């Protein structure tokens, strides 16, 4: 089965859940998912549509656990195992749905506070052979999506719906940082929903940069290109270099607002280049102002595609190869376009890699493989062109790519990593490593915060 972007738009209109996580590509791009995801309630409704009508009519309890997102246009499969349905996507479990038909008191469907458009919802589900679901199930699922989407703007992680004798509508939302729990009753159902909220990373500022490296003019007159420099580590590095009086060309694909805020914060030393680094032809044209500006003191390759776990399964292979291709394109293309200018200028190269490269967690082999491939290109370039190169195998940082509680456990501030890179740039060496290619791979190599008495 497959749900398309048009299905998400139709579901939003029918359920009144206009959560931008499902509809707005720009909003979703700045979350760990990188693009809109299918609403959990719509996935559940589509899966329940695999049940015969008489079996679906008896359902009084639904419990769903969401293990990974499903993206529009991506195929998924539904397996029916008596009291449990499983949605499989790209070779791994996406959703587990436990269902039950326990006897329950009669329940109504009236509410003054919220009413989905069941006609439109049934028309949407008809395209996916799920329009035989009873009104009460459709109403409950639409309400659950609206309750979570419009009150938390989060992604469902767990859904529980059970028939109850209450008809009145009530709702309670409890938010704990990036987690939210929504409880309530509506139209004869009692619901509890857990969601993961998007909590934007703190923006980079001159103050946050100055905590690790005081401003100076050591890079005055230097032209530096930062690929992927509008947010996260790229923005921290661009800002840090700008505080050392460098002219920093920030190349970015999507984050125009972030790039503009970066320029407003750090001043005219930030120059913006809006271009997709995977498009080699357009990239060459976009970087013409950099070539015209004269020598290139340094290039920092920071860009990376959105991260997600992918298992070793035939259905996941296309996504893995696409990730590796994109990861290499956003690094190799800029290096190919600027390599001669960089070498002729006696410049340096910085590559953002990952500590996961030596021991990738389960599901992240494609990520480690992509970083390893780019490291190979950078190392070969450095040795053949005699360009001092730093490979930064950064620890987990507090950026939007590490959203959620699991990703925010004692993260490293991107400003600290950026200051470490800039310190290397200023000295062009790491003590004890005189080779052309330096690698920072442990936390004890990072610069420490400036003393308050400094």
TrEMBL record:
Report the family membership.
Answer: Belongs to the short-chain dehydrogenases/reductases (SDR) family. Belongs to the enoyl-CoA hydratase/isomerase family.
Name of the protein described by the UniProt record: NAD(P)-dependent dehydrogenase (Short-subunit alcohol dehydrogenase family)/urease beta subunit
**TM spans (from-to):** none
Pathway info: Lipid metabolism; fatty acid beta-oxidation
Do you know which Gene3D superfamilies this protein is assigned to?
Answer: Hotdog Thioesterase, NAD(P)-binding Rossmann-like Domain
Q: Which residues form the MaoC-like domain?
A: 3-79
Keywords for this protein: Oxidoreductase
Q: Which residues form a coiled coil?
A: none
């Amino acid at each position: 089965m497959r749900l398309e972007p048009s299905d998400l738009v139709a579901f939003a209109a029918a359920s009144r859940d206009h959560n931008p996580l499902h509809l707005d590509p720009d909003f979703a791009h700045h979350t760990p998912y990188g693009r809109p995801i299918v609403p959990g309630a719509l996935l559940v409704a589509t899966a329940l549509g695999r049940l015969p009508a008489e079996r679906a009519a008896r359902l009084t309890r639904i419990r769903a656990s969401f293990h990974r997102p499903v993206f529009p246009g991506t195929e998924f499969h539904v397996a029916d195992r008596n009291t449990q349905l499983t949605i499989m996507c790209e070779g791994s479990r996406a959703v587990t749905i436990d269902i039950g038909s326990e006897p329950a008191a009669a329940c109504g469907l009236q509410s003054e506070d919220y009413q989905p458009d069941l006609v439109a919802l049934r028309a949407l589900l008809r395209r996916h052979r799920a329009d035989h679901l009873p009104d009460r199930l459709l109403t409950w699922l639409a309400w659950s999506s609206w309750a979570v989407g419009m009150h938390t703007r989060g992604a469902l992680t767990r859904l529980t719906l059970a028939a109850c004798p209450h008809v009145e509508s009530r709702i309670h939302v409890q938010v704990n940082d990036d987690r939210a729990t929504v409880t309530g009753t509506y139209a004869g159902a009692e619901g509890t929903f857990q969601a993961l909220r998007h909590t934007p990373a703190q923006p980079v500022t001159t103050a946050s940069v100055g905590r690790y490296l005081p401003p100076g003019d050591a890079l005055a007159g230097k032209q530096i290109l930062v690929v992927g420099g509008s947010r996260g580590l790229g923005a921290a590095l661009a800002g840090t270099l700008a505080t050392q009086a460098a002219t920093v060309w920030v190349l970015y694909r999507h984050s125009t607002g972030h790039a503009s805020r970066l320029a407003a914060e750090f001043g005219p030393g930030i120059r913006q280049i809006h271009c997709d680094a995977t498009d080699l032809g357009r990239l060459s044209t976009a970087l013409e102002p950099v070539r015209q500006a004269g020598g290139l003191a340094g290039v920092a390759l920071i860009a990376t595609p959105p991260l997600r776990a992918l298992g070793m399964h035939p259905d996941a292979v296309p996504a893995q190869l696409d990730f590796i291709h994109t990861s290499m394109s956003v690094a190799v293309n800029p290096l190919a376009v600027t390599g001669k200018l960089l070498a002729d200028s006696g410049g340096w190269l910085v590559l953002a890699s990952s500590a996961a490269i030596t021991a990738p967690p389960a599901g992240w082999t494609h990520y480690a493989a992509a970083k390893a491939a780019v490291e190979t290109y950078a190392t070969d370039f450095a040795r053949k062109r005699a360009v001092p190169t730093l490979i930064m195998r950064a620890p987990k940082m507090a950026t939007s790519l590490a959203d959620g509680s699991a990703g925010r456990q004692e993260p490293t501030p991107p400003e600290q990593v950026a200051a470490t890179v800039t310190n290397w740039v200023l000295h062009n060496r790491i003590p004890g490593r005189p080779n052309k290619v330096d690698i920072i791979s442990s936390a004890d190599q990072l610069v420490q915060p400036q003393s308050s008495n400094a």
